[in-house]
Amino acid sequence: MFYLFILKMSAAEETFVGAIDEGTSSTRFLVFSSKTHQPIASHQISTTNITLHEGWVEQDPEDILMKVKETIAVTCEKLKMMNISPSAIAAIGVTNQRETTLVWDKYTGKPLYNAIIWMDMRTQSIVDRFINKRIPNCHTLDEKKRHLQFKCGLTMNPYFSVFKLVWLMENVPEVSKAIQEERCMFGTMDTWLIWNLTGGINGGVHITDVTNASRTMLMNIHSLRWDKALIEFFEMPSKLLYPEIRSCSEVYGHMTDGPLAETPISGCIGDQQAALMGQMCFLAGQAKCTFGTGCFLLYNTGRKPVISTHGLLTTVAYKMGKHTDPIYALEGSVAVAGSATKWLKDNLCIVDSYKNIEVMADSVEDTNGIHFVPAFSGLYAPYWKSDARGTITGLTMETTDAHLMRATLEGICYQTKDVMQSMQSDTGHPITALNVDGGMSTSDTFLKILTNVCCLPVVRPKMVETTALGAALAAGFSVGIWSMHSVKSNCDTFIQTLSEEEQKSEYVLWKKAIDRSIGWNKDDEENEYDDFAGF
Fold first, then answer.
1. Which residues have a Cβ under 8 Å from the Cβ of 44 and sit 6 or more positions away?
2. Of 10, 67, 166, 487, which is the most buried if we count CB atoms within 10 A?
3. How many CB atoms lie within 10 A of CB 480?
4. What digits encode the pLDDT tens for the residues 43-73?
5. What would the pLDDT profile of 420-443 be if each residue is shown by its tens digit?
6. Are 307 and 300 in contact (CB under 8 A)?
7. 280: left (phi over 0), alpha (psi -120 to 50) or beta
8. What is the DSSP string of 357-405?
9. Strands 264-270 and 89-96
């Protein structure tokens, strides 16, 4: 359900809130109406990945900044064509790809290296090194895992910012030199954008929010501050310039130039947490799943962090204001979702459009006994097995391409169910409905399969821009445009049509398929630790 209450304006008055949505594949700026909380204008530009080596993914920070400014300028021109002045935008929120790591010079404002993107895997050897590092009074791998996880909520994985930062310090001389000279500014993508948009070298605000900071492995999720013990464990230099950690909803500073000069930037939240906000999952027990290239499931656990014992991460969901309590979430990520359908279309070439995948999957009642585990680059939550590989089980002479299409969609749904079951085990409470968004959620066929596999209602908002909406809400809450209240928005709800008994037998076969997908990429001398999750 969506809840929104409009404050401080008569029926004739209307203001707007802007949202910068800086994602992995594109940069967007959207403007939302204070009355309808619908986007009225937007502009989007694709971003470019730089892949110097296999497993490396970088982006040019200055190119991203330029594209953010361009999306703002073009959107403001669209507003003028609608006879709306850009000055009617009362606040701006920022949402961004998390974990992506940047360093730049405090005095010149120039990046010291490209942004290392969250999915970059170059740091595996660094992860392994820290996995093997000793911690006082921690004698076993499990003790070490729990010690760090209790502090930061995360497990050791190349995703997280600290490992990218270590790589930069060890491999880019300009970075280590700038650190020694106390001019190396560190931050995630939100930090870079807000610093530049609020003035850069001329007084720019060097901040991040609790959700982005919680993905670095350097913030204590209880105190919401940079943690001295974590900084020492990861051997961070004392002269590195860290951003100040702030809430998700407060005025950080003001735009200094462009059509929105003097407009406050008053919201900042990582993209998956923004989607949780945009889905209005404000109550403990509510969950959302974003289906894009991969899928990310977040479960609101309320005011106390739940440290997972079932392969999930603990993260800050949001903190709406300086003096409010933080809200926490459990998070599970699945590596392959929409990219599995892309594989069917572009690699196997057995279908010419995504729409036809849906049509063909809908043309058969079931998969005729096959299960497809799309573990192309390993299994993520809750298994964390890097040696897993894509596996199809149960093939017969009667198997058709339509069965494979349906098995692909079911495989994505079963992975979602695996994460949900871990969440329920960690919290002791069942998920009663799943809010969904992302590209795959536009498919009714996919959501019908999802609701049957997961055995619960699946809720899709009619307004699908939930990530950008989450950033806009954070900004709007800060300046008094919106507050939570009991006004319901329009959603589509999908209800299961198969019994749980029917699904149980299929889930047993899915678990067998998972077992058979593991162990395909072991080195001759097997490492004691699994690549992803030795932690």
1. 26, 27, 28, 71
2. 67
3. 12
4. 999 988 898 888 898 999 999 999 999 999 9
5. 999 999 999 889 999 999 889 999
6. no
7. left
8. HHHHHHTSSS-TT-EEE--BTBB-TTT-BTT---EEE---TT--HHHHH
9. parallel
